[in-house]
């Protein structure tokens, strides 16, 4: 499969995740404004893919503005702030921007390196997590539950939590995957289910609110999710609905694994309470499929992410190792 995000001649090319699963199409983004719009609309999304977007967007600006470093720095700031929670976005921007004194081509070379390293890091992290899960769970084949989309589409390639599924499935260790639909934007139902179907992995989509019932009925052996930002103490910000999943897993004695590249770890933050959580528009909740479902004057609470405390997490696994959790 092609990369989720890549550089082609003078543009950033992304798989349009707003069009999936109905259509597999790409978008060619030629300006920083177009890229920022795609990030905000979640046409490109998922923490590692956002890291790549930040780096490539900075390169696009550096190539366009030449010696006007102030203009590039202004673009870089706007890119980094397009979505606040996934630390990879500002990390990717910073990494590319550091090469600005060497010129636009050097910035592009660095951005391309971010893309190349992403797939390698995610393969390593997910292979390590697959081993840890096999050590921890006796049952074969395994019945896994995941939330949101932490697959190829959330990264440049391969995936994190779904990367674990690819490793385990190849080894014949997966009976099925339960994919939370992931309200309100349905990354699980639209994207994870699509990826699992493409890979021939048996799966079931379930409402987020049915996950605890699936656990209570003994249908799940292990939960595995990705992350948007991991604080120094191992608290994890991930898609809204991850925290209740961890609570339910703890209640049922099920292991709860988080898998991410090292670029998702933010050691500048001592704990999860410092992570900025993106609030998204009310319409994502009051409308469904373009149709209004809540009263006109309904007030809305729509945080895009939540924070799972480290003490509910069995292990945070990255390409560098397994984080010691307090
Ligand atoms: O709002 P999104 O779709 O960008 O949220 C994505 C997630 O929460 C993913 O679980 C996370 O980025 C990990 S992706 C490997």
TrEMBL record:
Enzyme class: isomerase
Active site: 228 (proton donor)
Key words of the record: Amino-acid biosynthesis, Isomerase, Methionine biosynthesis
UniProt signal peptide: none
GO molecular function annotation: S-methyl-5-thioribose-1-phosphate isomerase activity
Binding of substrate, residues: 45-47, 83, 187, 238-239
Site (Transition state stabilizer): 148
Enzyme Commission number(s) of this protein: 5.3.1.23
Pfam family, one: IF-2B
Superkingdom: Bacteria
Family recorded in the similarity comment: Belongs to the EIF-2B alpha/beta/delta subunits family. MtnA subfamily.
Chain's role: Catalyzes the interconversion of methylthioribose-1-phosphate (MTR-1-P) into methylthioribulose-1-phosphate (MTRu-1-P).
PANTHER family: METHYLTHIORIBOSE-1-PHOSPHATE ISOMERASE
Name used for this protein in its record: Methylthioribose-1-phosphate isomerase
Organism: Amycolatopsis acididurans
């Amino acid at each position: 499969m092609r990369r989720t995000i890549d550089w082609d001649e003078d543009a950033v090319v992304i798989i349009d995740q707003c069009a999936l699963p109905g259509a597999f199409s790409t978008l060619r983004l030629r300006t920083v404004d177009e890229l920022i719009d795609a990030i905000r609309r979640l046409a490109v999304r998922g923490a590692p893919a956002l890291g790549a977007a930040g780096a490539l967007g900075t390169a696009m600006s550096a190539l366009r503005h030449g010696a006007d470093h102030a203009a590039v720095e202004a673009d870089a700031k706007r890119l980094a702030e397009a979505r606040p929670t996934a630390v990879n976005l500002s990390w990717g921007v910073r990494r590319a921007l550091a090469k600005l004194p060497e010129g636009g081509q050097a910035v592009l070379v660095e951005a391309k390196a971010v893309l190349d390293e992403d797939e390698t890091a995610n393969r390593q992290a997910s292979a390590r997590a697959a081993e840890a899960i096999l050590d921890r769970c006796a049952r074969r084949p395994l019945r896994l539950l995941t939330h949101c989309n932490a697959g190829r589409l959330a990264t440049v390639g391969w995936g994190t939590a779904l990367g674990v599924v690819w490793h385990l499935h190849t080894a014949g260790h997966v009976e099925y995957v339960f994919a939370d639909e992931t309200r309100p934007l349905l990354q699980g139902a639209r994207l994870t289910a699509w990826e699992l179907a493409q890979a021939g992995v048996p799966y079931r989509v379930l409402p987020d609110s049915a996950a605890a019932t699936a656990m209570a009925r003994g249908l799940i052996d292990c939960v595995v999710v990705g992350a948007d930002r991991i604080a120094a103490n191992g608290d994890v910000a991930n898609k809204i609905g991850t925290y209740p999943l961890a609570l339910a897993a703890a209640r049922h004695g099920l292991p709860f694994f988080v898998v991410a590249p090292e670029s998702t770890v933010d050691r500048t933050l001592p704990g999860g309470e410092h992570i900025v959580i993106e609030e998204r528009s009310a319409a994502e909740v009051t409308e469904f499929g373009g149709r209004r479902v809540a009263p006109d004057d309904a007030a809305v609470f729509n945080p895009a992410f939540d924070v799972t405390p480290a003490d509910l997490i069995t292990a945070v696994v990255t390409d560098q190792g397994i984080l010691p959790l307090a």
